[in-house]
Specification:
This protein is α/β, with parallel strands linked by helices. 37% of the residues lie in helices and 19% in strands. The protein has 13 helices and 14 strands.
Length: 375
């Protein structure tokens, strides 16, 4: 039996390995999951919760602290390298990762599966197709063409001993040369959790575009304040990378309740009550939630980004990427678009718990799968 090793570094990647294992039970029977632990508290908590589901699915997993001191990191990578060397099949969550790239030379795998790491999958496919260096979309790198077959990752994927290269994805992408695409329909979530419980009002999903330096924070605060007022959003579902200081400002400016999901949004939407509308900026959930919530009355709407919000010095590549994933999401799922704020009078703010939305006014409550904090 072919030994299968998964390398994941984030809750989203771990979730998508669970999805892959659910629809490939034969291959997953030999699966071991190596979790390269993230550093931020909310990501680690989401990973911890997902590990419980992995155990329930009888999957073997182990966490590795690869971001500790240099000596400890070297020892951990050496130990992981031996596991990578023994695996006939690798399931990878992020080919952009320097840690993963450091482990690839150990591999003799005849099969490679790349699962989604969010919308970065679209950029990965573009760069592999064009034979360019792999660099993350928000770094500003121009991704110049490499020598020969492109980047070292491209050369590794093009080796003669690799028999099969698969992309397991929900993104609307064409496979790069030599690869096949297998659609990720989130069967594990839909088969395991539900039915969807719908709240009144709207939920606004937070974004880390401020943290990555793409969007100006002041403009972002103005935008979500207007969205909260005009769309009746009463909860702000914080992105795991958003800072407490920023979230405190959001709560004070908008009156929204700040929610820190303890599971990825795709799972939370099926295990906890969710607003009848989920509002999101350009992000992965614009693709995943319409699939996860298929058949429910919940709508997903896309908040457009105004060019005026983009920070000075942001690379054109980053702006083009945001536009691309927004237009693809709208085309893929027929999402309604919310244009940026117009220069008209502001509608009155509807605070959570009012009769207008028929919502329970219970800020600060703690649910089974999400923690709610009122700043």
């Amino acid at each position: 039996m072919t030994e299968t090793l998964a390398l994941v570094e984030s809750p989203a990647q771990l979730l998508n390995v669970l999805e892959w294992a659910h629809v490939h039970p034969g291959e997953a029977s030999s699966l071991s999951i190596a979790i390269l632990q993230p550093t931020d508290r909310h990501s680690r908590e989401q990973v911890r919760r997902l590990c419980k589901f992995a155990s329930q699915a009888k999957l073997v997993w182990r966490r590795y602290e690869v971001r500790s001191g240099s000596v400890s990191r070297a020892r951990t990578l050496l130990r992981l390298g031996r596991s990578v060397s023994n695996a006939g099949r690798l399931v990878i969550g992020d080919l952009f990762s320097r840690t993963v790239q450091a482990l690839l030379p150990f591999s003799k795998a005849h099969e490679v599966v790349v699962v989604d790491d969010g919308t970065a999958t679209t950029e990965l496919v573009t760069l592999l197709t064009q034979g360019r260096q792999l660099s993350r979309w928000h770094t500003g790198d121009t991704s110049r063409k490499g020598d020969g077959k492109g980047s070292s990752v491209s050369r590794w994927l093009a080796r003669d001993t690799l028999e099969r290269f698969t992309l397991f994805t929900c993104m609307p992408v064409a496979p790069p040369p030599g690869a096949v695409v297998v659609p990720n329909e989130y069967r594990w979530i839909r088969d395991t959790f539900g039915p969807v419980r719908v709240l009144g009002g709207a939920d606004l999903a937070g974004t880390s575009l401020v943290e990555t330096g793409i969007i100006d924070q002041e403009h972002y605060l103005e935008a979500i304040t207007w969205i909260a007022r005009s769309r009746g959003a009463w909860r702000y579902l914080a992105h795991r990378r958003e800072s407490p200081e920023k979230l405190r400002e959001i709560a004070e400016a908008t009156g929204m309740e700040i929610v820190h999901p303890e599971l990825p949004m795709e799972v939370m939407a099926r295990v906890e009550p969710i607003g009848h509308t989920v509002l999101t900026f350009a992000s992965t959930i614009a693709y995943t939630l319409p699939i996860v919530l298929l058949g429910s009355p919940v709508r997903v709407e896309l908040c457009e980004i105004d060019d005026a919000w983009i920070t000075e010095g942001t690379a054109a590549r980053s702006v083009d990427f945001l536009r691309k994933i927004s237009s693809l999401a709208v085309a893929r799922h027929g999402l309604s678009k919310i244009p940026p704020q117009s220069r008209g009078p502001r509608p009155p703010l509807s605070l959570p718990g009012t009769q207008q939305h028929g919502l329970p006014g219970i800020p600060g409550q703690h649910g089974a799968y999400g923690s709610h904090e009122a700043f």
